[in-house]
Amino acid sequence: MDHFPTNWGRPRNDAFDMYGTYPIHQRPKDMFSDGVQHTQQPIVTGTSVLAIKFKDGIMMAADNLASYGSLARFKDIQRLHKVGDYTVIGAGGDMSDFQYIQSILDELVIDEFTAQDGHNLGPKEIHEYLSQVMYARRSKMNPLWNSLLIGGVKNGKRFLSYVDLLGTTYSASTLATGYGAYIAQPLLRKAVEGHEDDLTQEQATRILEDSMKVLYYRDARSLNKYQIATITDRGVEISESRSAETSWSFAEGIRGYGAQTQ
Q1: DSSP letter at 231?
Q2: Any catalytic annotation for residue 39?
Q3: Pairing of strands 44-46, 49-54
Q4: Which of 39, 47, 114, 246 is catalytic?
Q5: Beta strand spans in the chain (E)
Q6: Is 84 exposed, middle or buried (0-12, 13-18, 19+ CB in 10 A)?
Q7: pLDDT tens by residue, 84-103
Q8: 176 to 126, 211, 252, 258: CA distances (angstroms)
């Protein structure tokens, strides 16, 4: 009797183990035994993250979907993560790599707290740390497959910046990752640039809600369920999941696709 549950109900072939059913120590020699293998492409992925500056701080938005290829697989994933007392990071790309980033950031915050030296990590320090981590992994040809937005407020100063799997960094008053960099970014720039010091929290929320609605209409990897993070001098607040009101009645008038060609 075979006592390995991974083998039950699956075909067994001593020459070629298509399903990876052998225990590691018994597995026949194959291409994976020749060296260390690195992630070649992301598997479970998140799409756009949006972020803008407003009068009192930073606001970020991301939906709750993690897609398995083109399958909308996980619909309750939080892609906005609080780091310390002043910072939020939002991640697009591979969700397992994002979980790893969350774990190393949590360890970093704990180490900083236990030092008890009167210093706390702010968004600038978190961004610098992540830029070094991402560039180091890229240099080892084993990147973390993520695009990250880092936003926060410390000592009354707003900070918003971007870093990706290559270690590329830049800052702006409006940022977006994924498909949002093409669809939402023009909308954000038109609404925000030049008005960063005038926008109220309510106006900033409305801008992000409208942009998330547009992304839901246009991005096949998005979901009509999202969260908004607000970072001000009062601290960090990440909302519960919310849905935007959408209407698809306009689709009745579209012609040229499917059976409706006339």
Answers
A1: E
A2: yes
A3: unpaired
A4: 39
A5: 44-46, 49-54, 57-63, 66-68, 71-74, 80-83, 87-94, 146-154, 157-163, 169-171, 174-176, 226-232, 235-238
A6: buried
A7: 999 999 999 999 999 999 99
A8: 18, 11, 31, 33
